[in-house]
Design brief:
With 415 residues, the chain is mainly alpha-helical. Among the domains are: 149 residues, no CATH class; 139 residues, no CATH class. A hairpin with a 5-residue loop joins strand 1 and strand 2. Helix 15 runs antiparallel to helix 16, helix 15 runs parallel beside helix 17 and helix 16 packs antiparallel against helix 17. It starts with a helix and ends with a helix. 43% of the residues are buried.
């Protein structure tokens, strides 16, 4: 039943995105955040690689459109990052490994997707539609996580009883929801109609409760940072104080117990009792990653190769990632790949810095909340390997797009 529906939807989007590429972008965001081909059992349709087809059409329709302002610096960083990731894998002789090729493909997909986004959005209306799409489907993840937790749907819980909604991992879900909270709050503040403001209140509530349901400690720190920044930014607004009080009340009464359960002994859904030691092990893994980088400073050990390289070069016996995006990139891509990866953050924060100086409320206010969103992601990256998450790449390009729109409007005013 669902497969024919998605087939016709894909065909319709393929035609419509030729005229309006943004609709294709919004549909792809839906597939990235909800993952219908995975969760709705659409294997027959997935075999035709519909997202790849839509992306190719989207790329072609975007390339032939002229824009008065281009995001060349961002595009150069993307090309450099992909090239260095490929060279790292090639030099380390791991390019033929299936997992490596799969991750490199994810990097290519995310990178080209944000290039397309930056190319096809040239005005406020389109940018707001993109932002609202991200907020809505992220809210769906938060609502689904809450539903799974409340009704204890065991098939959708990890072995330790944590929901991940459509993201496949509770930590990834927490990072996604945290990054969207400030953007949703911006839409709440600037909603023109009362029913939209109420909708965004519900949305923010679902994003926060979804984050708490993941029982992610990195997510908790990110939530505290994001909510603290929002509170300080709007300390004179009564609505902000009310939201913060609600969050603190919920956390004190419910979330504290959930997080304390992870500190000592756990009983998984399979009945196995274990001692929780992931916090300590992550510190150990971080040390391994740094030592591994010292042995391979320029090119790293190759994408996804941290466990194997650590076992071979350091004599360890590990099978997990570093749980730190920065150290993962540093150890696997080397100092060159790490410098380019950090270049995305520097470029985005530089654009935000310029935008916050603008007199017009739209640019100044949206820049503030994009900065808080990015700060949440940057903190989560210290505890979660989120470098492959598409929403991170979108959050990094949103300030670039906003800066581009400002330049386009300034050019129009001068004519």
């Amino acid at each position: 039943m669902l497969e024919p529906l998605f087939f016709f939807m894909t065909v319709f989007i393929a035609f419509i995105e030729v005229l309006k590429p943004l609709y294709g972008v919004c549909y792809l965001i839906f597939t990235f955040l909800i993952m219908p081909y995975t969760y709705f059992d659409l294997k027959g349709l997935q075999a035709w690689r519909p997202n790849l087809v839509l992306s190719v059409i989207l790329f072609v329709s975007t390339v032939f459109r002229n824009s008065p302002v281009r995001t060349n610096q961002h595009t150069v960083l993307v090309v450099m990052f992909l090239g260095l990731a490929y060279l790292s894998a090639l030099i380390n002789g791991v390019l033929g490994i299936t997992e490596v090729k799969s991750v490199l493909f994810v990097f290519v997909k995310n990178s080209l997707f944000v290039i397309i986004i930056a190319s096809c959005i040239n005005n406020r209306k389109d940018l707001l539609l993109l932002i609202k799409t991200c907020v809505f489907f992220s809210m769906c993840n938060g609502a689904y996580a809450l539903l799974i937790q409340v009704f204890q749907i065991k098939s959708m819980l990890t072995d330790k009883g944590r929901p991940s909604a459509f993201q496949g991992d509770p930590n990834y879900l927490a990072a996604l929801l945290i990054a969207i909270i400030p953007i949703a709050y911006y839409l709440f503040l600037h909603g023109e109609k009362k029913f939209l403001r109420r909708f965004y209140v519900v949305t923010i509530g679902l994003l926060i409760t979804g984050t708490l349901c993941t029982v992610s400690r990195g997510g908790l720190l990110g939530l505290v940072l994001v909510m603290g920044c929002i509170f300080l930014k709007n300390i004179k607004k009564i609505s902000t104080i009310i939201v913060v009080i609600i969050v603190l009340t919920f956390f004190v009464n419910v979330a504290q117990q959930l997080f304390e359960e992870r500190q000592t002994v756990q009983t998984s859904l399979s009945g196995k009792t274990t001692v929780e030691a992931s916090a300590y092990s992550r510190l150990v893994f971080a040390g391994y990653a740094f030592r591994l980088w010292l042995r391979n400073p320029i090119w790293g050990v190759g994408t996804t190769q941290f466990p194997d390289a650590s076992n071979k070069q350091l004599g360890t016996r590990i099978h997990h990632t570093v749980h730190n995006a920065y150290l993962t990139i540093l150890s696997e891509h080397g100092i060159l790949g790490f410098a380019v990866f950090m270049g995305f953050f520097i470029l985005a924060l530089g654009a935000i810095r310029r935008l916050k100086k603008q007199e017009e409320v739209f640019f100044r206010e949206l820049a503030w909340y994009l900065q808080i969103s990015l700060m949440g992601y940057m903190l989560c990256a210290c505890f979660i390997s989120i470098q492959r998450q598409v929403m991170l790449w979108i959050c990094l390009v949103l300030p670039i797009i906003l800066d581009k729109i400002l330049k386009i409007e300034n050019i129009a005013k001068q004519k």
